[in-house]
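Example record

Each entry pairs one chain with its bound ligand, 2-keto-D-gluconic acid.
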Amino acid sequence: MTQRPGVLITRRLFPEVQQRLGEHFELRDNPDDVVWSPAELIERLQGQWGVLATQGDRIDASVLAACPDLRVVANMAVGYNNLDLDALERHGVQASNTPDVLTESTADFGLALLLATARRITEGERYLRAGRWKQWAADMLLGAEVHHSTLGILGMGRIGQAIARRAAHGFAMQVIYHNRNPLDATTERACAARWVSKAELLRQSDHLLLVLPYTPANHHAIGAAELAQMKPSATLVNLARGGIVDELALAQALQSGQLAAAGLDVYEGEPQVRPELLALINVVLTPHIASATRGTRLAMALLAADNLIAFHEKGEILTPIKSIQACNQV
Ligand code: 8YV
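Structure tokens for the complex follow.
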């Protein structure tokens, strides 16, 4: 009997995914979800043919040089800023991500985070739980309107489009967006959105949602200069990657009243969150859970597993990562 290839699974996964992979590969896993250092990741990758990884598992030139047997990386995430694509190409290692399967639940969460932030839902809950609610008051916890307001979307990929459809058709919002390349007219019509320059987007948005890929060019795409162009009444929501926002500049803008509120699901140093953000009341903070429904996470894990199986059986990647140059930067 020929030896089955080895696959490392970097995180605790669902039993059905583990079982499916176990039918094809020799598995090395991480059932206790221990956080590995880069050296520990390299140690566990020794001799492995494939890896099922996710954001946070940095696979770069040094990892690839130390793990010459590695042939394929299945990333359980649509984002892939944890992977050095040039180094993967140089080492002849294939890579896949998990697009589409998480689009709708992530878009649901985008709206939820926007609503929670603009309507001060978590702040209201903290107020109530602290026993501070003594009576109904006409001016208590007043939030910003969501319906009929202007929603700006920075990064109009699949998730941005799904958010635009919900916002335009469900909340009668006026949707504007900015991408390096505008969408084609049919797609624009379907999500009732209009392309504007980045400067216009910052100026006009009542709520600005960030759903762009994190690339070197998008590092701190929202910094002090961009925050200064936004309306003081505006809400900023980041669903993408922490590094897209200069968090210190954001904390300062939120503290000084230059910006009304922010909803963040992602952080530059996650899982560490800056004390400057934790100290603010006008920010809703969630622990990178935009795609976290059982159905979606299971679909993501199964797609990652199927990429490994298809590559093993047919030499084919089902959802290959397109080159970084091809992504729509802003
Ligand atoms: C989670 C995401 O990171 O897909 C992405 O890029 O950011 C999220 O869906 C994913 O669940 C992996 O942890």
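The first strand starts at residue 6 and ends at 9.
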